[in-house]
Specification:
With about 425 residues, the protein is mainly α. It has 15 helices and two strands. The chain has helices at about 1-25, 25-35, 40-55, 60-70, 80-100, 105-120, 130-160, 170-210, 220-235, 240-250, 255-275, 280-295, 300-330, 335-355, 380-385, and strands spanning about 395-400, 405-410.
Length: about 425
């Protein structure tokens, strides 16, 4: 019994560590656009998001019940399986954070859980229909729905504001207030959806350890612990992913940020009410891209988006493989569990050390990445450049060796004091 109690304590702590990584990994969902448009200062934004994540954790338990009693069959699942699943999810979260890729913490958790359960008890341990209806279908539908909604909302916002003077201080202040409010709504929705995933995992561990009966709701102490863990992670800020979502996908104006965040929050809150454990990251990323396409002349950086899509596709299988490998070790006995714990700590330490080579924090999260290679112009960018009006009369355009155009004023023909133009360099 002492071994079971110790193992349960290890699993609970590991689950809260995952919740912490979920917080800083997904901070970008709520605050990337708000920070990139300057509506809020970085530290203020993550502090507000942390508080609302904590509040959101207390609003519902539907998603927690889906995870604790829907993804896998509780009968015959050992507590070690939950530990192995969390190891796979944490390592994938840290790796994608290092790369600045806004992948899904939810799918990392599901992948680790599925891989560990299959390794432990075979494919019969997984509830296929539940995974399809409440995980895979929302994973595909959520970013598309959020993206389309954000694109329509962006176009409507610009159309409604076309007759007003959008340059006035009052208008700018209104968009800023709207963006802050919508960011707060996304943070609340994130806490409602993602904090519950850790609640569900801890509840599942307590069920496998015989502490709770199958089908039980999360105890209050589990809800409080999960809410605090995700809030602390959010406050630290996943600056690398904030930078990617705020500046890497598209250049956003306040109108677009407001439309993207409102659309994403609506999708997330609706799914939480229905018990769909979707990816808040994918919903928010889809909304950002939709807002980028919704503005006339807006450009989505598809090279960054492609890397993000690849990470989305790899998340479930990669976390499942790590979870299965970890479960294979835990099946060997206490030494296997210890080996998995050592590998988790060592892997986390290596990733953290690599991140220190080029740190990103609240001081440089909105700075241009001067070390990154310039992205080739896409079709939309080329088309816009082709119809750019020529320079005004009285000036000439000089093209440098790097292909950048600079406008050099020329003296008017009626100016008698003008010196002769220099000869062109050969």
């Amino acid at each position: 019994m002492e071994h079971i109690t110790l193992l349960l304590a290890i699993v609970v702590v590991t689950a809260l560590v995952f919740d912490f990584t979920n917080g800083f990994h997904d901070t970008a969902n709520a605050m990337a656009t708000t920070i990139s448009t300057g509506a809020l200062k970085p530290k203020t934004a993550v502090a507000m998001s942390a508080v609302l994540n904590l509040v959101g954790a207390f609003l519902s338990v539907e998603v927690a019940k889906t995870i604790s009693g829907g993804i896998i069959n509780e009968e015959g699942i050992r507590t070690e399986v939950i530990f192995a699943a969390l190891v796979g999810a944490i390592l994938w979260n840290l790796l994608t954070w290092l790369l600045g890729l806004p992948s899904s913490s939810s799918h990392a958790l599901f992948g680790g859980l599925i891989g560990a359960a299959v390794m432990s008890a075979g494919w019969g341990a997984v509830n296929g229909p539940t995974i399809v209806t409440k995980v895979l279908i929302p994973a595909v539908a959520a970013p598309i729905v959020a993206g389309l909604a954000a694109m329509v909302a962006t176009r409507l916002t610009y159309r409604l504001g076309a007759k007003s003077n959008t340059g006035t201080k009052a208008t700018a202040k209104g968009y800023r207030a709207g963006q802050i409010a919508s960011a707060g709504l996304v943070s609340l929705a994130h806490g409602t959806n993602d904090a519950q995933k850790t609640m569900g995992i801890i509840t599942l561990a307590l069920v496998t350890g015989g502490v709770l009966a199958p089908g039980s709701n999360p105890p209050m102490w589990v809800i409080v612990a999960a809410g605090i863990a995700i809030a602390l992670g959010t406050y630290l800020g996943g600056w690398r992913i904030i930078r990617t979502m705020g500046k890497g996908l598209t250049d956003l104006q306040p109108q677009q940020g407001f439309a993207a965040q409102t659309s994403a929050a609506t999708v997330i809150l609706a799914s939480s009410h229905l018990g769909f454990s979707l990816s808040t990251t994918q919903s928010c990323s889809g909304a950002v891209m939709g807002a980028g396409l919704g503005r006339k002349g807006g450009v989505v950086r598809w090279s960054t988006a492609t890397r993000m899509f690849v990470a989305w596709g790899l998340t479930l299988p990669a976390a499942a493989l790590v979870g299965a490998g970890a479960e294979f070790l835990t099946k060997q006995g206490p030494w296997g569990i210890g080996a998995v714990a050592v590998l988790l700590v060592a892997g986390s330490g290596v990733i953290w050390s690599l991140s220190r080579r080029k740190p990103v924090d609240h001081n440089n999260v909105t700075a241009d990445d001067l070390d990154a290679p310039a992205e080739p112009a896409g079709v939309v960018t080329t088309a816009i450049a082709a119809v750019t009006p020529p320079p005004a009369a009285g000036s000439v355009a000089a093209v440098t060796d790097t292909g950048l155009k600079t406008t050099i004023p020329t003296p008017g023909p009626t100016d008698p004091a003008a010196p002769p133009a220099p000869a062109a360099a050969v």
